[in-house]
Amino acid sequence: MALQDLTPQLRTRLSRMERAVGWFVFLAAALLLFGFGYYLYHTAERKGWFVIKAKFHTYIQSSAGLNVGDPVYMMGFPVGQIDSVRPMQPRDTNNVEVVFEIRDPFFRYIWTGGSYVKINAAGFLNQRQLEVTRGTNGYARVVTQPVSVQTLDELKQLVTDEPGQWQLSQEVLDAGSNLVFGAFTTLDETNLQRIAELKPESDSLYVYNNTVNRNRIVASWDGRVRRYKIFKPGDDTAWLRVVETPPVSDQLQAMVGQLQQALPIVLALTNKLAAVLDNAANVTSNLNIALVGAQPVITNLALVSAQLREPGGPVVWALGTNGNEQLQGALTNANALLANTDTNLTTILLQLAGITSNLNAQVQANTNMLGVISKTVGDADDFVQGLKHHWLLRSAFKTENQANPAAPPDLSPPRKR
Question: Could you report the per-residue pLDDT of 346-399, keeping only the tens digit for each?
Fold first, then answer.
């Protein structure tokens, strides 16, 4: 049916429907484009397409466990990814070169002092990951300020025109290779005059303007020449040293080798341990036999201790069953002997008293007896003294006092005080 054959009412309704479908298609396409742009924006933001990225390279022994696209970590954060992993030339001293990129602002934590690459184990399937440590001192490894080479005369004019904006991009040494000015030192007329007095080999200095920045990395520090090296096309990576740990497979292989070496020693120890256990079993068996043999002794000791606890038990155990009666009889006889001894002693004392009484009576009756006895004693003493002075018997009565006669008394008059 042709459109001109429709009635005016149908034509009006069809035109309204066409406009509604057109608006619907337009809104759907706009939403689709908005969603696709939103997805691209977040993907670019997540992958760091809008931020500055610094590329670094390092050399490792083995590429095991490292793949292109693996994340690079710093302080536990994913800060970049691996761009390439390639072997070096046959005659090169290095094995594998790994190139990776670090996003802004994390590459600003990488300094010449303390920053290096660590290759860590990331799993049990021979997986490894790159980790860059944070710098603690030194200079920034890469910079975004463009470095230029200026002569001393040009720098004097620049410092005068733009004071406080120009800084060194190198180290300045004296004739003894001592550091005079470090990188990032702000230049002024005094510093330039001091540098001119040092008479450097070149009349030019590597400097940068601290008010100018680029949205890319333009130079990296080269410790061999002590200055920032300006990047050339195709040479836009900075070098970082690496601390590489062996892969898990190599560590497991080394562990297995150590176990193989230690296995004979372990087996010898187990054999010795088995022998010790056998000896311990024999000792316990012999001890059990000894305990069984000692049971009668223990029983007898129990009986003896029970007898000793009874009243009079020690006497019965030492002297036998009749020992108590014998001891009682001995004590009775001793008691009787003591009683008879007292009686006999009394009788002896009475007899001695009678003898002394008779002697006293005789002395009282004969008064000359004591005088005769005294005269007899005196005559005997005179007789002995006479024998002492006889020449024949004198040596028989010598004493120690005679052998060593006493010194004569001092007869000198007393001294006056």
Answer: 788 788 877 877 777 776 777 666 677 777 878 887 777 777 776 666 666 666
SS3 198: helix
**CA nearest neighbour of 130 among 113, 140, 116:** 116
User: Is the overall model pTM greater than 0.70, yes or no?
Assistant: no
- 328 CB contacts (<8 Å, ≥6 apart)? none
Among candidate residues 50, 79, 82, 46, the one with its CA nearest the CA of residue 63: 82
Indicate the pairing of strand 147-151 with strand 111-113.
unpaired
CA distance 68 to 81: 8
Tens of pLDDT along 148-205?
999 999 999 999 999 999 999 999 998 888 999 999 999 999 999 999 888 777 788 9
Which tokens is 160 given? 């005068």
- Domain chopping of the chain, boundaries: 12-47, 53-244
Contacts 24+ apart (CB under 8 A), 194-202: 195/152, 196/152, 198/172, 198/173, 198/174, 200/172
Can you tell me the distance from the alpha carbon of 324 to that of 416, in angstroms, rounded to the nearest whole number?
89
> What's the number of CA atoms in the CB half-sphere (13 Å) around residue 1?
6
Phi/psi at 82 (5° precision)? -80, 130
Burial class of residue 290, CB neighbours in 10 A (0-12, 13-18, 19+): exposed
Tokens of 341: 């001894």
Peptide bond connecting 105 to the previous residue in cis, omega within 30 degrees of 0: yes
The answer to whether 187 and 159 are in contact (CB under 8 A) is: yes
- In contact, 50 and 44? CB cutoff 8 Å: yes
Please name the residues in contact with 71: beta carbons below 8 A apart, sequence gap of 6 or more.
Answer: 78, 80, 81, 129
3-state secondary structure of 302: helix
* Contacts for 396 with CB less than 8 Å, ≥ 6 apart: none
Let me know: does 152 contact 130? Beta carbons within 8 Å. Answer: no
Q: Which of 191, 237, 196 is nearest to 218 (CA)?
A: 237
